[in-house]
């Protein structure tokens, strides 16, 4: 392998820029192949900086057409311009106006960063470093400028012209052209700049803020799709209201616009006053979107809106601080969804996601702290660690301080740092200042990578009425951090007695215990509870109070007891999930030893009892019944992974549960059939989720394919239709009913790319060795496009990240196809290719034969010519 480390950016190298740009005006003359950009910067040398300091602006693939200072063209000796850099060695004045002209070609921009065209709509994506593909600039988040933007285009091509801030002027020009001017009074970093121009349909709304100002809301979509934006509009209004009520945050411009585009690298982008969305997270109705889609739309609309304060009004000093806006904003959107839906169910779903995406990252070669200290390519740090673990860290701050002090700290944060580019240290300081507490040890959550583990054992002495917990913490080594410091872990817990009642204690020593939380700060705590009158079962990490793993020596009886009686709904779910996981791991070992896997009868019985327990929400029951995924099981096993054996174990448990509960499951399945008209609310979605997981079990019994086929035919919404199609395709691959349903679905949604993504996704997920050929064939399907990120993620992303037996085919064909495809995607879109390539990050946990084949595929990528910085960074770290 050729190791070309490239430039490494280091946190400790941060220093403020010598120059500031308090104002910028941009003038775009749009045309698909030659867009002229005229930029006028007000440049100011910072106080105390020597006059000899050169002005160095960032560029990326730019050609400079013209340059002038204070109206005078510069002589060639007065500047140097390369595609990557514009240097003015000695600007004459402390403050001056710099005028630049560049020309760019949006239609040939397939990387989808900078200014590009999607479906004939001009749009921009500037985070993290896309602005420098438009014009030369100090393209870093601590340079805050007031933007005025003029856009000019042919009216026929782009009747709509949008940018950040408020509209100030528009007019008609000669030759069928027109223009609009936008002004954003809030100083912002360049990554929040946006422009959209094209022919789009509009859904209008309005919102009256807490101080009585009326804000005009607009959601722009492909013409004809307006009726699919209603749910997003409603979610936006609810988000605006919620941020006022829960965080006291009011919106600050006269307009708030959202545009849905069909080619987008990520989910959505929080540009000031002009959010740009992947259309997948805007468009929905019951015919085309699943309940999960509705929930995602609600969460992402909220997330981007919440960025207006956490990200835009207060931004990041540098990209090392990315979690300052992302972790905090994810925390805020999680809380929003918990308030809009069911808090208990939301929490379980969050933890499942964290474990599925962040844990493997933290436990593999790509591990990095929530606030990294090094990067080669910042685009590769929009990770589950920065987002999801970053959110958990904020949640722990609230757990430790209590909700009132947390809110007081947030208020101080907004007051103290409004209009600034801030750091994690400044964020933590507000909480220290409002409480007088020292968060130095806690801050390690930001600085240290790896998932901490707590080993816990307990004992009870009836005669002495004493209950003891022994807790030991360890943080595993991660790349470039072999020695770890001890963390402050807030471990919420409960002592649970007969019937699920809390067991009281008289006194406790050995650790600080407050409000049901043990503060683990040392390597080892022996926590003595005295005056405990019955032997309790201990419920640990309630509500998932810390993002850790637990190794608990606990009797299966206690685990069964907690799965039925724990009053903390998360821990109750967890107890059952742990029982399932333990059973699956034991079964995996039996399969490897050529034995038939066997399961304790009471496990299947408990599944039946949970399914039928009317005191539990249907959505909760659905989550409890959905078995740990194959990759969850793999993660818990740790090494020597043979995905086929895991699949066999999981399949055997599912069949056992189905067979043992046939009557209960079918009666319940029938009783949950949809009655009234469709509504996307959480309670209705929960009933559908429960019915669909029951279908999944029942489909394993005789006549299962017929049942699923009937479910498919009878479906009146996408949730049920997609669930039935998944059951047919995954459980009955090759059966006539499965083939028919796939064909029906394809015909019905032929013209709808977003819905066909589900069809690609379902087929890419079919377990077994034959899927790789199917996926390869589907890349030739007329609806597939290697240039569109949603298509690539649906087909290639699902196959490589969510199909354990298909991708990890023992002969390495899955990996080979994957390597070829990643390189194909990379030619156009390095960011999407790099993300796709993370699918192999856990290759070292595979059994030796697969491990070797996976490594060959990674080397094949690493050795390719002209690898982008994005992909090179991922493969080299993965192989290191
Ligand atoms: N900042 C966006 C968000 O989380 C994500 C994003 C990053 C989008 C980079 C595009 C490019 O809300
Ligand atoms: Zn975000």
From TrEMBL:
<dbReference type="GO" id="GO:0016285">
    <property type="term" value="F:alanyl aminopeptidase activity"/>
</dbReference>
<keyword id="KW-0645">Protease</keyword>
<dbReference type="InterPro" id="IPR037144">
    <property type="entry name" value="Peptidase_M1_pepN_C_sf"/>
</dbReference>
<feature type="domain" description="Peptidase M1 alanyl aminopeptidase C-terminal">
    <location>
        <begin position="557"/>
        <end position="880"/>
    </location>
</feature>
<dbReference type="Pfam" id="PF11940">
    <property type="entry name" value="DUF3458"/>
</dbReference>
<protein>
    <recommendedName>
        <fullName>Aminopeptidase N</fullName>
        <ecNumber>3.4.11.2</ecNumber>
    </recommendedName>
</protein>
<dbReference type="GO" id="GO:0008237">
    <property type="term" value="F:metallopeptidase activity"/>
</dbReference>
<dbReference type="InterPro" id="IPR038438">
    <property type="entry name" value="PepN_Ig-like_sf"/>
</dbReference>
<dbReference type="GO" id="GO:0008270">
    <property type="term" value="F:zinc ion binding"/>
</dbReference>
<dbReference type="InterPro" id="IPR045357">
    <property type="entry name" value="Aminopeptidase_N-like_N"/>
</dbReference>
<feature type="domain" description="Aminopeptidase N-like N-terminal">
    <location>
        <begin position="27"/>
        <end position="192"/>
    </location>
</feature>
<dbReference type="InterPro" id="IPR042097">
    <property type="entry name" value="Aminopeptidase_N-like_N_sf"/>
</dbReference>
<dbReference type="InterPro" id="IPR001930">
    <property type="entry name" value="Peptidase_M1"/>
</dbReference>
<dbReference type="Pfam" id="PF01433">
    <property type="entry name" value="Peptidase_M1"/>
</dbReference>
<comment type="function">
    <text>Aminopeptidase N is involved in the degradation of intracellular peptides generated by protein breakdown during normal growth as well as in response to nutrient starvation.</text>
</comment>
<dbReference type="InterPro" id="IPR024601">
    <property type="entry name" value="Peptidase_M1_pepN_C"/>
</dbReference>
<keyword id="KW-0378">Hydrolase</keyword>
<dbReference type="InterPro" id="IPR027268">
    <property type="entry name" value="Peptidase_M4/M1_CTD_sf"/>
</dbReference>
<dbReference type="InterPro" id="IPR014782">
    <property type="entry name" value="Peptidase_M1_dom"/>
</dbReference>
<dbReference type="GO" id="GO:0006508">
    <property type="term" value="P:proteolysis"/>
</dbReference>
<keyword id="KW-0862">Zinc</keyword>
<comment type="similarity">
    <text>Belongs to the peptidase M1 family.</text>
</comment>
<feature type="domain" description="Peptidase M1 membrane alanine aminopeptidase">
    <location>
        <begin position="231"/>
        <end position="442"/>
    </location>
</feature>
<dbReference type="Pfam" id="PF17432">
    <property type="entry name" value="DUF3458_C"/>
</dbReference>
<keyword id="KW-0031">Aminopeptidase</keyword>
<dbReference type="InterPro" id="IPR012779">
    <property type="entry name" value="Peptidase_M1_pepN"/>
</dbReference>
<dbReference type="Pfam" id="PF17900">
    <property type="entry name" value="Peptidase_M1_N"/>
</dbReference>
<dbReference type="InterPro" id="IPR035414">
    <property type="entry name" value="Peptidase_M1_pepN_Ig-like"/>
</dbReference>
<feature type="domain" description="Peptidase M1 alanyl aminopeptidase Ig-like fold">
    <location>
        <begin position="450"/>
        <end position="551"/>
    </location>
</feature>
<keyword id="KW-0479">Metal-binding</keyword>
<keyword id="KW-0482">Metalloprotease</keyword>
């Amino acid at each position: 392998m050729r190791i070309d480390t490239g430039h490494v950016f280091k946190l400790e190298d941060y220093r403020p820029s010598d120059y500031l740009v308090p104002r910028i005006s941009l003038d775009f003359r749009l045309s698909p192949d030659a867009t002229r950009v005229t930029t006028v910067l007000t440049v100011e040398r910072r106080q105390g900086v020597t006059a000899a300091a050169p002005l160095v602006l960032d560029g990326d693939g730019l050609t400079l057409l013209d340059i002038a200072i204070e109206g005078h063209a510069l002589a060639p000796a007065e500047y140097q311009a390369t595609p990557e850099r514009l240097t003015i060695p000695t600007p004459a004045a402390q403050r001056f106006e710099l005028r630049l002209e560049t020309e760019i070609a949006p239609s040939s921009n397939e990387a989808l960063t900078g200014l590009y065209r999607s479906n004939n709509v001009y749009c921009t994506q500037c985070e993290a470093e896309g602005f420098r593909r438009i014009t030369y600039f100090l393209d870093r988040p601590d340079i805050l400028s007031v933007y005025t933007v003029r856009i000019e285009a042919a009216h026929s091509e782009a009747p709509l012209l949008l940018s950040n801030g408020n509209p100030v002027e528009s007019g008609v020009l000669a030759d069928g052209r027109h223009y609009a001017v936008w002004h954003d009074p809030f100083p912002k970093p360049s990554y929040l700049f946006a422009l959209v121009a094209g022919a789009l349909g509009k859904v209008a709304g309005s919102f009256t803020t807490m101080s009585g100002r009326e804000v005009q809301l607009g959601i722009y979509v492909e013409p004809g799709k307006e009726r699919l934006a209603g749910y997003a509009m409603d979610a936006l209004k609810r988000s605006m209201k919620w941020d006022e009520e829960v965080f006291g945050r009011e919106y600050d411009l006269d307009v708030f616009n959202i545009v849905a585009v069909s080619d987008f690298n990520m989910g959505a982008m929080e540009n000031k006053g002009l959010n740009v969305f992947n259309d997948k997270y805007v468009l929905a109705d019951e015919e085309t979107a699943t309940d999960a889609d509705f929930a995602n739309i609600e969460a992402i609309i909220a997330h981007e809106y919440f960025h207006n304060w956490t990200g835009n009004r207060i931004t990041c000093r540098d990209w090392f601080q990315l979690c300052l806006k992302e972790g905090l904003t994810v925390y805020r959107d999680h809380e929003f969804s918990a308030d809009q839906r069911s808090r208990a169910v939301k929490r379980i779903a969050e933890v499942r996601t964290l474990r599925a995406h962040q844990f493997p990252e933290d436990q593999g070669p790509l591990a990095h702290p929530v606030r990294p200290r090094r990067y080669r390519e910042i685009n590769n740090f929009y990770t589950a660690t920065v987002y999801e673990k970053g959110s958990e860290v904020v949640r722990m701050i609230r757990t430790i301080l209590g909700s009132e002090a947390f809110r007081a700290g947030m208020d101080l944060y907004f007051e103290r740092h409004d209009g600034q580019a801030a750091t994690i240290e400044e964020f933590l300081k507000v909480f220290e200042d409002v409480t007088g507490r020292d968060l130095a040890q806690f801050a390690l959550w930001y600085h240290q990578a790896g998932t901490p583990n707590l080993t816990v054992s307990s004992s009870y002495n009836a005669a002495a009425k004493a209950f003891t917990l022994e807790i030991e913490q360890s943080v595993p080594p991660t790349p470039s951090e072999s020695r770890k410091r001890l963390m402050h872990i807030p471990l919420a817990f409960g002592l649970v007695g007969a019937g699920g009642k809390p067991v009281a204690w008289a006194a406790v020593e050995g650790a600080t215990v407050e409000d049901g939380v043990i503060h683990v700060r040392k390597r080892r705590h022996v926590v003595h509870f005295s005056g405990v009158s019955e032997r309790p079962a201990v419920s640990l990490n309630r509500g998932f109070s810390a993002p850790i793993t637990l190794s608990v020596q606990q009797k299966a009886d206690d685990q069964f007891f907690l799965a039925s009686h724990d009053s903390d709904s998360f821990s109750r779910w967890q107890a059952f999930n742990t029982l399932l996981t333990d059973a699956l791991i034991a079964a995996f070992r039996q399969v490897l030893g050529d034995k038939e896997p066997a399961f304790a009868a009471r496990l299947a019985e408990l599944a039946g009892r949970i399914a039928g327990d009317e005191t539990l929400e249907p959505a909760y029951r659905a989550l409890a019944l959905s078995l740990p995924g194959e990759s969850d099981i793999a993660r818990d096993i740790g090494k020597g992974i043979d995905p086929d054996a895991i699949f066999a174990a999981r399949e055997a448990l599912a069949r056992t549960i189905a067979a043992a509960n046939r009557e209960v499951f079918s009666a319940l399945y029938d009783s949950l059939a949809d009655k009234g008209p469709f509504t996307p609310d959480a309670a209705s979605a929960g009933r559908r989720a429960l019915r669909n997981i029951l279908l999944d079990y029942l489909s394993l019994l005789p006549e299962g394919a017929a049942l699923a086929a009937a479910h498919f035919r009878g479906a009146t919404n996408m949730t049920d239709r997609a669930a039935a199609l998944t059951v047919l395709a995954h459980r009955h691959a090759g059966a006539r009913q499965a083939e028919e349903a796939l064909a029906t679905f394809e015909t019905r949604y032929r013209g709808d790319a977003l819905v066909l993504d589900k069809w690609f996704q379902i087929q890419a997920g079919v377990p077994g060795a034959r899927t790789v050929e199917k996926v390869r064939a589907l890349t030739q399907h007329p609806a597939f496009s290697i240039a569109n990120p949603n298509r690539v993620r649906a087909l290639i992303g699902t196959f490589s990240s969510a199909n354990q037996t298909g991708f990890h085919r023992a002969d390495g064909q899955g990996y080979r196809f994957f390597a070829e495809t990643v390189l194909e995607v990379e030619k156009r879109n390095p960011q999407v290719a790099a993300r796709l390539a993370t699918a192999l990050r856990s290759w070292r946990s595979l059994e030796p034969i697969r491990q070797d084949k996976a490594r060959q595929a990674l080397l094949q990528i690493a050795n390719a010519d002209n690898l982008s910085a994005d992909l090179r960074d991922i493969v080299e770290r993965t192989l290191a």
